[in-house]
Amino acid sequence: MDSQRAEARALEAEITALRRACVEPPAPGEDTFRVRKSFREIYQADSEGWELSKDLRSHLGHLESELQFLSTLTGISIRHYSKKTEDLTSTEMTEKSIKKVLQRHRLSGDCHMITFQLEFQLLEIQNEESLSSVITDLSIIMEPTEYSELSEFVSRAEERRDLFMFFRSLHFFVEWCEYRKRTFKRFKEKYPEAVHLSEGASSSCMGIRSPSRPGFELVIVWRIQIDEEGKVLPKLDLLTKVPLQALELDKNGVIETAPLSFRTLLGVLGIEATLESLIKSLHTEASN
Amino acid sequence: MELANTLSQDGESRGGVLAHLERLETQVSRCRKKLEEPQSTQAVESALGTRIHELRRLRDKLRAEVKQHQARVKASTTNVEPDQTLEITEQEILKRKRENVKAILQAYRFTGISGKLTSRGVCVCIGTAFEGNLLDSYFVDLVMQKPPQIHHHSIPVFIPLEEISAKYLQTNIQHFLFTLCEYLNAYSGRKYQADRLQSDFAAFLAGPLQRNSLCNLLSFTYKAEPEGQSFPFCARLLYRDLTTTLPTDVTVTYQGTDALSTTREEQRAAHENLFFTKPLHQVFTSFASKGDKLDMSLVS
């Protein structure tokens, strides 16, 4: 019976405590108001805190302008970057003071009109004498995909895990594309009736016609190729469209040898001068 | 029974009715007492038991209530927390942004060209790599005036820096940097191949590897099978194009005075072709793996 009385007393005490607990905490609103007020007081009172914020802002501004500068300098804008590190050092390695780390990087951005998304793995092995860093996997996604010359190049870069070659060739490719576009646009503006761009300035073909000589057309095909080594080279060809009668009259076979002559001309005058001379030859005849 | 007996004996009971009543009373009170005694301990005990039972129930009920109450309080305070966090973590947002920008700046090294702003302009760092191996990097400290100039650099002297800068530095800095990148990466790649040949395939070399500092002229005597009785071949590799890692001119010759057998001649020609198409150390890797049977399928 004593134990029972003891238990009863204990229960009573617990119940009183529980009753108190149900009532104790103040209303939420009150509580947080108090907390908020104290934080504000701390924040304002701490002038160092204000200064840190200002410093932070200016530092951030400086870094952002550095990023903008780098982006303009290289022509490559990196928009997102993330990295994961995995330590692969085994206990045996640690004994020999060898460190092995696998990093997974994700990078995305654009280079003029082309956007890229890269994922690659970098294996770093550090021993007493040296540090070796090897890219062990590379995967590249590029847009837009209508530049067919690029898809082959991308698979080659992935195969070779040659990250730097990818960016280098990308840069030169884009440079050539822009140059081609500018050149075509310039000729179109200078000789609007003679020059014909089927797909606008970004097309790879430029047609030269003469309004007074319908049926004749010279088509310049300007491709930009990336070779095995990642070298970017322009490849220009001339296609001729000539009425049958003219062909029959062509005793000297000028039309036939035109593509070859074109290549020679390119070597001598360079791209722009060659194109202009071709346009002029058809154009001046027309204006006569 | 007693009662019945006393009542049936009419007139002859002692004390008569009063005495009888007295006797009844004592009996009743004795019975009552008997009933009451165990009841008091029992009663107390069972009363306690019930009370404990009741108390336990109440306690459990209150416990549940308090839990609910606490949960409610917690929920309402967490609802209020964001407000507080907004005020004090503006710094956090800025810090996060800063870390993000810093990371992207670091990431530029993976494009091969990275840099840091200096008081005069920018110090550009050009990285080199071959077959996924990250190799040496070089720097060019540019003064961004009109026209831009090179303040100082770590480019090796045999790289035609003056030529490249004369062509492009004033007109197109991007082109200047990427062209320099081309030359440096090609040099790094050639050097890597030559180093690997010397270190990994020394057993195949019959003499020292002769190389120039630009690593674009290599000359060596080798055997396709290190232990075999095969005759050594002399190879001379010239890389005329300084922006490539594969040779433009390859000559493989036989040193002996007597004429080569047909198989040997075929081998010689095949080797020449190999040197043209594959990096140097990979050619020797294929020698090592094929043993003395040269796989003609390697010849494209």
Describe the structure.
The complex is a heterodimer of chains A (288) and B (300). Chain A has 288 residues and is α+β, with helices and mostly antiparallel strands. Chain A is 53% helix and 28% strand. Among the domains of chain A are: 77-88 and 97-173, no CATH class; 175-283. Chain A is built from 9 helices and 8 strands. A 4-stranded antiparallel sheet of chain A has the order 1-2-3-4. A 4-stranded antiparallel sheet of chain A has the order 5-6-7-8. The model of chain A is unreliable at 26-47 (pLDDT under 50). In chain B, the strands form 2 sheets. In chain B, strands 1-2-3-4 form a 4-stranded antiparallel sheet. In chain B, helix 4 runs antiparallel to helix 5. The chains are: A alpha+beta (288), B alpha+beta (300). The interface between A and B is large, with 70 and 70 residues.
Write a brief caption for the model:
The complex is a heterodimer of chains A (288) and B (300). Chain A has 288 residues and is of the alpha+beta class.
Strand order of the largest sheet of chain A: 1-2-3-4
| SSE succession of chain B | HHHEEEEHHEEEEHH
Strand order of the largest sheet of chain B: 1-2-3-4
The total strand number of chain B stands at 8
Please outline the helices and strands.
The complex is a heterodimer of chains A (288) and B (300).
Chain A: H1 2-23, H2 28-45, H3 47-74, E1 77-87, H4 91-95, E2 99-111, E3 114-126, E4 131-143, H5 148-160, H6 163-190, E5 195-196, E6 205-210, E7 213-226, E8 232-241, H7 244-249, H8 254-269, H9 271-287
Antiparallel strand pairs in A: 1-2, 2-3, 3-4, 5-6, 6-7, 7-8
Chain B: H1 2-8, H2 16-88, H3 90-107, E1 113-117, E2 121-130, E3 133-143, E4 149-153, H4 161-168, H5 173-200, E5 210-211, E6 217-222, E7 233-238, E8 249-254, H6 262-277, H7 280-290
Antiparallel strand pairs in B: 1-2, 2-3, 3-4, 5-6, 6-7, 7-8
